[in-house]
Write a structure and sequence with these properties.
Distance between the termini: 37 Å
Number of strands: 11
Number of helices: 0
Largest sheet: 7 strands, mixed
Length: 115
């Protein structure tokens, strides 16, 4: 599985962006998909999770604003009501169910939210 993240950009506070994580190969559906982010000078943060059976969880900081989803070959992160604290490089990553180690990473996509 290879992952390709896209959709980042510059947006004003209150705006929206939709990130995509395209996956090659047929095994994508067998992996848990996570979206993570890393802001300058901060540790990487797990933002959202969607499991192989559709279970979803969010970091408290994004609940009610972000929506994670997936289809056969692509993962998505819809981000609404963005604020400057959401500025970060966003990554998608895939891991086998029941594990914490990531098997695959997408390259980061930069999201910048201006005030």
């Amino acid at each position: 599985v290879q992952l390709q993240a896209s959709g980042g950009g510059l947006v004003q506070a209150g705006g929206s962006l939709r990130l995509s994580c395209g996956a090659s190969g047929d095994a994508f559906s067998r992996y848990v998909l996570d979206w993570l982010r890393q802001a300058p000078g901060k540790q990487r943060e797990l933002v959202a999770i969607v499991t192989t059976i559709g279970g979803i969880n969010y970091a408290d900081s994004v609940k009610g604003r972000f929506t994670i989803s997936r289809d056969k070959n692509t993962g998505y992160l819809q981000m609404n009501n963005l604020n400057p604290e959401d500025t970060a490089v966003y990554y998608c990553a895939a891991r086998r169910p029941g594990t914490s180690a990531y098997a695959y990473w997408g390259q980061g996509t930069l999201v910048t939210v201006s005030s």
